[in-house]
Design goal:
Blueprint: E1 2-4, H1 5-11, H2 18-28, E2 32-35, E3 38-40, H3 51-54, E4 58-60, H4 62-68, E5 78-84, E6 90-94, E7 97-104
Parallel strand pairs: 5-7
Antiparallel strand pairs: 1-3, 2-3, 4-5, 6-7
């Protein structure tokens, strides 16, 4: 399950040092740090389920979508998403895969 830092701090509020407890949980493998402020509690979560939470608003598109629907024969190893009017591209390398976000300009 995807959880934010605030959600985890609320769950761990009973500890005297909840941030330290979160650090220990990450070291023990009970949760995985994805990007700043975002954690995943299940190591087996497919990367495509995380794409919209890492950087948004966005949607999976481009090479990933073509490969997912069998429209190209190549294997795709990155989760490529489209964003709207962000005016920049972003790349995140996480334990769940590489996520690439490309800006789609408006049609004006």
């Amino acid at each position: 399950m995807i959880k934010t830092y605030a959600m985890l701090m609320e769950e761990l509020r009973g500890y005297s040092a909840p941030a330290n407890k979160l650090g220990r949980m990450v070291k023990e493998g009970l949760c995985t740090h994805i990007v700043r402020g975002l954690y995943e509690t299940d190591k087996t979560t497919p990367g495509y389920l995380l794409a919209g939470s890492i950087y948004g608003p966005s949607y999976l598109s481009f090479e990933f979508a073509l490969a997912q629907y069998g429209l190209i024969p190549e294997a795709v190893y990155t989760f490529t998403s489209a964003t709207f009017e962000k005016k920049k591209s972003k790349k995140y390398s996480t334990p769940f895969g590489t996520f690439f976000y490309r800006d789609v300009p408006s049609g004006v």
